[in-house]
Amino acid sequence: MATTVSNRLNGAVNGTPDAASLEASAIVGDVEVFNAASGPHGVGRIRFSGASGATVLGLASSRVYTGLSALDQPRYVMDLPETDQWFVRFYLRVPSLQSAGFGINEVRLVSRFAGAGLSLAVHETAAGNIGTRLQPDDLAAAAINWDSETGTAKPINTWWRVEFAYDATGASPVFTSTVFSVDNPAQAPRIHTWNNIALSGPLELYGYRYRRGVLLQPGDNDTTTGGQVSVMQNKLLAWDPDLLPNFGADGDYGGETISAVSTFQAAHSLLVDGIAGPETLAAIDLQAALTGDPNAYPPQVMLSHVAVSDSGPLGPAAPPRRSAEGVIARDGELSAEKQDDTNSAMGQIGIEASLGASKATSAGPSGQMALVGSVPASKAVTVPLEGVIALRASATVYSDSALSVDYAAGHIFPPFKPVDDDATLVNSVRATRRDGGEFSFEKTTGALSTAEPPEGVGVYASSTTLDVYTDAQLGSQASWRVWLGTVDDYRYPQVRLNLVANPELIDAVSSRDTGSNLQILNPPPWLPPENIDLMIEGYTETINTHRWDIEFAASEGRSWIVGEVLGEEDGEPSPPGENQSNRADTAGCRVVGSVPIGATSITVQTTRGPRWITTAEFPDEFPFDIRVGGEVMRVTDITGTSNNQQFTVLRGMGSVELAHSNNTQVSLYQPAIIAL
Questions:
Q1: 55, 131: one domain
Q2: CA 96 to CA 123: how far, in whole Å?
Q3: What digits encode the pLDDT tens for the residues 472-506?
Q4: Using an 8 Å Cβ cutoff, are 611 and 357 in contact?
Q5: Pairing, β 130-136 against β 412-413
Q6: What is the edge-to-edge ordering of all strands in the sheet holding 438-442?
Q7: Whether the Cβ atoms of residue 104 and residue 126 lie closer than 8 Å to each other
Q8: 294-344 pLDDT, tens per residue?
Q9: d(CA 510, CA 348)
Q10: What Rg do the C-alpha atoms of the chain give, in angstroms?
Q11: Distance CA 308, CA 81 (A)
């Protein structure tokens, strides 16, 4: 048996991981975080990060913030196999610790064997490498040194692959920790071995911070501690100005200070003994910082690619899959042939257009259309198939019809968490006309394609029987269903609204039904910052004396923000200059240099395909919106005719403004999708 954990592994929890599930383990998804004081509680202070230096193997990782006590420390929790041998693999990045001001006394607990009351503790050596020990739950107790050490020391603030091996089949148990360098895989691993240490689970992965070798206690004063007593007293007063009413920060650890420390310990789930030891002092430091800035957490431990096994070492995770560039969506006949960087204009619909950065383009119904067009970016898309056919965006209609609820305003009640799984994955569809022919379509390239891992996820097949008019329509039907089944986004199986608490929503909610659009504004901070677009699949309504709840079952809705394919008799395509879904996306772009908060000019490099349009060339095409990392920006001006272009932008269009690092991906906010 091998066990996976809720770190967005593509296999079922407690199921057997395969190459695909291990490879995808760090992608943002549903994470259960455990708090020992209150039990499981959603994401807590474990966050996801895609920032520079915060990824391993190109995938986003979890940032684990330190808690104010061990009981209040968010962590991943998983069972260990009930066998005499087990193996664990995860990727870990411990930040530089000496920068916090405590030098080698700054310690992080990164994994805990709860049944044994022991944690693997790491600290930064004077040389900037990692030091490893086993630490009892009593953090004032001496750490347990390893029995043997081999290999090359690993520098702090880099990615490591950590492998645990436990063997209790012999006369005495042996625990081995092996650390590999991700950045320098040829380097010899650092191996530590502990003999005669019995370990048992559950296993907890976390990043708890404490101060080793520090202690302030009754009778101490500034003279004997180098001024540390008054430093601590001032931090306690910053938390509660009334804690030391008689003597204040007098530098003496007397009865009033004992009481103040005890009060602080009780409020933060610490052992109440009035003594400021390693854990209490670290908590006082952190609380003082948070009092001034709620986000002033110390550097975070980063985790990803977690797996547990009883069948042998797990080894490295597979490198990340990278999807092929998207092909422009087209209505048409039955084939979709890829030849080098071209794709037949006859083929699938419901695929994002990828023409570089999206000026008008055209292709005949049977000619070859380049994956990356030969024109510069961001104009309305034109795809002639039978006569003149153009795109008209339907995003405006979508927005007008959506039911909008505000997470920040308290409209949504627990439970509310996304699910990122394969429950709705379909990458191969056979469409059959009743009493007629059939047509099969599959997605053969990309992260969710039918290709075997790691290039894809394997075949997820489905079949449907339809009452279409002719067999010629089956290709469009099959390809559209593949499009809906391969959108890599969250599911939201539960979105609950309390209408008693939010009566202003009653009229809007009552007018919606299955198939309506649901938009969640100002999502929680542990999700991407842009609004969440959903489709209502069903609902349950509960009404009694005290309750009026609507619980929606919803699916992702962005796949339904589409353009319309129009004939001449159907009206005009959407005019340029509007931020609508009638533009083809870039084939590949990135930020050059860092983009601080407040910056209104960014340099964008086109890495594949044509460059973006300029204001001088197409003034009527502006403005339009782009997505940079997790932030939506409005482009008002573009200059430059090389691959490096200067963008003038308005920030925080999605209500969130972020700092971005070098190489952050840039894409069109709403690229063109051609629907049925």
A1: yes
A2: 9
A3: 888 878 888 888 888 777 778 789 898 888 888 88
A4: yes
A5: unpaired
A6: 438-442, 428-433, 461-466
A7: yes
A8: 777 788 888 888 878 887 888 887 654 432 222 222 322 222 222 222 222
A9: 37
A10: 29
A11: 8
Same domain, residue pair 163 and 257: no
DSSP H or E run through 239 = helix 228-239
Asked whether residue 481 is assigned to any structural domain, the reply reads no
d(CA 257, CA 234): 11
**Cα(453)–Cα(321) distance, rounded to whole angstroms?**
8
In the structure encoding, which two tokens stand for residue 469, read together? 């008019």
Q: Which residues pair with 452 in a beta bridge?
A: none
For residue 301, give the 3-state DSSP assignment.
strand
Mean pLDDT of 80-95: 88
| Residues 585, 670 share a domain | yes
What one-letter code names the amino acid at 612?
Answer: W
Beta strands in 310-451 (DSSP E): 338-339, 342-344, 368-370, 390-393, 403-406, 412-413, 428-433, 438-442
Is residue 290 domain-resident? no
Look up the pTM and report it.
0.50
396-449 pLDDT per residue, tens: 333 345 788 988 888 988 778 787 777 788 889 998 988 888 888 888 877 788
Burial (CB count <10 Å: 0-12, 13-18, 19+), residue 640: middle
* 3-state class (DSSP) for residue 507: helix
State the residue range of the domain holding 227. Answer: 222-276
Question: What is the rounded CA–CA span in Å between residue 655 and residue 657?
Answer: 7
Same domain, 203 and 69: yes
From the number of C-beta atoms within 10 Å of its C-beta (0-12, 13-18, 19+), residue 151 rates as middle
Q: Is residue 429 part of a domain?
A: no
Q: In this structure, are 595 and 658 located in the same domain?
A: yes
246 lies in the same domain as 154:
no
Contact 393, 578 (CB under 8 A): yes
In a domain, 551, yes or no: yes
Question: 500 and 639 in one domain?
Answer: no
Among 530, 560, 590, identify where a domain stops: 560
Sequence-ordered list of residues with C-beta below 8 angstroms from that of 318, at least 6 positions apart, any chain:
19, 20, 22, 23, 453, 454
